[in-house]
Amino acid sequence: MSERLPLQLQAALAELALAVFTSRTLSQNLERLVGVACRMLPSCASGSIAILVDGQPTTAAVTDHLAFELDLVQYDTGEGPCLTALGGQTVRFAVLDQSEQFPHFAIGAADRRIRSVLSTPIRHDDDIIGTLNLYSRQPDGFDEQAQRVADVTAAEASTAIVTSRIYEQARQRRDELQVVHDEEAQISQAQGALMAVQLCSAEQATGLLTHAADATGDDLVEVARRILDEVTRQPTDDAQHGSRPKPPH
């Protein structure tokens, strides 16, 4: 196999790239990709590709129902090679040899006669956007050569994912949620600052923020930022002598 692998990789690259640009949907692209990977590895019994949507892993493509079941075992128990690979670490292990690492998943895998797993992160720039998960009924089903095939497949999967509308929508949603989280955090910090320096209740601090926003025509986030800037600029010795910033106008 070692002598044929470079030629196999060349053929796989051509087929994988073709899959990305000829299928109409992301799921079709990914199903073809994971199918090619499994065909190249005789030890591979089943495979899946999971992607992150709103921060949660979701199985987007499988070779058969077995792969879907194995992914679900991990989602339900909160452990397993797929979830670990989402942290950026490639996981290649024999189920029985490392059952202590993923005890709940190991039981589910053994029940389905799966004895080794290879999970590879799917990367886009510095982000992990999914995982390629290959399952084998052999104890040592995946070697270094199998890892090379998985790396090629993961790279092509990344191309398919980042060029899809689903990923773009998921990324935009993630960015929107991050903005909302950051703004809510700033408003909460400003309320806390007002409570500390004005010796008022949370309800009174909220009222001060709202009154300032109404008076200036700014939104609460902008008022909160001004308050935090003012508090940050207050000299330490003034704070020690009881000086307090003026309430927002």
What topology does this entry show?
Elements: H1 5-22, H2 26-40, E1 44-53, E2 56-62, H3 65-77, H4 81-85, E3 91-94, H5 103-111, E4 116-124, E5 127-136, H6 144-162, H7 165-198, H8 202-216, H9 220-233, H10 236-240
Antiparallel strand pairs: 1-2, 1-5, 3-4, 4-5
- Could you say what the CATH architecture of the largest domain is? 2-Layer Sandwich
H/E topology pattern: HHEEHHEHEEHHHHH
Order of strands, widest sheet = 2-1-5-4-3
Helix percent reads 55-70%
Whole-number total of structural domains:
2
Please identify the structural class as seen in this structure.
Answer: alpha+beta
Main beta sheet: 5 strands, antiparallel
Assigned CATH superfamily of the largest domain: GAF domain
Using the alpha-carbon principal axes, give the shape.
Answer: elongated
Count of DSSP helices? Answer: 10
Describe this structure in words.
The protein is 59% helix and 16% strand. The chain is an alpha+beta fold and 249 residues long. The chain folds into two domains: 5-163, GAF domain (Beta-Lactamase, 2-Layer Sandwich), CATH 3.30.450; 173-240, Arc Repressor Mutant, subunit A (Orthogonal Bundle). Strand 4 and strand 5 form a beta hairpin. Helix 1 (5-22) packs antiparallel against helix 2 (26-40) and helix 3 (65-77) packs antiparallel against helix 5 (103-111). The N and C termini lie far apart (75 Å). The mean pLDDT is 81.
